[in-house]
């Protein structure tokens, strides 16, 4: 039986990945900051699907948290076959309105943690000649909009570059770029969603199903909805100044988690 490790596992897209992978028979390593929620989730998934669900409490905004997860990914005696780097958050406010400490914390979680955890997993997987990594980004990566979009753009470029470097090793890497997803994300960040059209909202479970299909097909980039694929096609040819204005009107961030 294979094992999947999911960061940010207790809510949103992370929880959807946990539900789907448990239903498919994968054992899980669930990573988040809230031990109580992790244990409740692990018990529910074990009882419902008969899989083993390990709990790992870690704050990926700290070196200690990153190191704890990296150590689990490097454990060759209990290998992880699929890593889902999903942990993330948004800051409310425009550039210079957000405290620098909060901006740096975002970069720690979105960039440094993704780099270090991907590297730990990929090294172990390459040794075994198999494995998969999904790094969750956002369509915000393609729109000029502050630190959130910039950090998610880094995830896209890093993942696709690493996928090319590891081609033929048996390790598959894919970056997942959803749009707006109905999760706890916006409420936890104190962001309103009243100005977001209904057609832009995605279902987390359907999104995960598409993402796993794309990974199995060997894609390195997954935009899991025809509406957003069309929208990103427009983004490629639209003036950057126009995109910045649209981004401002629809809120600070486009993504999920």
Describe it for me?
The chain has 257 residues and is of the alpha/beta class. Helix content is 49%, strand content 15%. It has 9 helices and 9 strands. Helix 2 links the parallel strand 2 and strand 3 (53-57). Helix 1 (12-23) runs parallel beside helix 2. The longest helix has 29 residues, at 100-128. The two termini are 27 Å apart.
| Lateral arrangement of strands in the main beta sheet | 3-2-1-4-5-6-9
The helix fraction, in percent, is: 40-55%
> In one word, what is the shape?
globular
**How far apart are the termini?**
27 Å
Poorly predicted runs: 241-257
Q: What's the Cα radius of gyration?
A: 17 Å
SSE sequence, one letter per element: EHEHEHEHEHEEHEHEHH
Please tell me the overall pLDDT: 87
Strand content: 5-15%
Tally the beta strands. 9
Structural class: alpha/beta
Number of helices: 9
What's the main sheet like?
A: 7 strands, parallel
